[in-house]
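Table S2 (continued). Query chain:
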Amino acid sequence: MKFIEEVVVEEFLPTFRTMLAGALRERGRTQSEVADLLGISQSAVSKYAHGEVEVNDAIKSDDRVIELVERLAGGLSSGDMSRVQALVETEVLIRRLERGDLLARRHEAAYPPIAAYDGPLDIHDPEGELRMTERVRSSVRRGVRTLENTSGFAALIPAVGSNLVEALPGATTIDEVAGVPGRILDIKGRATVPGDPEFGVSAHVASLLLATRAAGSDARAALNVSYDAETIDALESAGYVVAEFDADADLEAAVADALAETPDADVLYQTGGFGIEPICYLLDADASAVVEAVRHVAR
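Corresponding output:
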């Protein structure tokens, strides 16, 4: 595990201090004065001046870094800028470069698992997409593990396979819904999961979930299981609200009609159609909550 703060310490700060120390010396500041302005030792300034500190070329050549170094050197030398202001200005630039920018790219290079992420990367944003996508993956992962260890679940897997999916807040496309790649299958009486959760891998269950959300549902997760009357009865007995939709109709329209009639439904089902297997869809706030419904029908 490599933190972006380590990239700042190991790559940005040595480069930035070398550049700033050099710029201050060029403006006639003594080694002692440079050390005082930067809050570092004179021996450190000497190392910067003699090229004994490794610098990062990508950081050194960045126009924003160059501009800030010149501005700080001029302000600190003239006394127009305080050391506190210089620190704040530098921190602002660092945070900017960490948000899907130069330091984020350096972080990806230093920690390859991050490089697999395609979206805008802001490692510090508590509401950022990276944090949310990883939370959703983790939620689906936990739900899948529970399903694998739930006695009787394999018997509920339909012929087309099951999938457990969870959407990002505000999701409108399949690419914003995480699920099991290749679906969960019943192999010799055991629920078998082919891979780790990914986004954009479930066309079927994800589309159903998105249709419910488009119709006004707050559900962010869904699981499909095989349909029979006993399953519906068991869910109703457990307090779930069920609604039927037409398997032969357009999915979005059929789901919208079902939810218009039963807006509180947390179970949708269809009894089949031409070439369509009867399926029951469990809906809830997250993957773990959806999986909780399975214990009421597993047998």
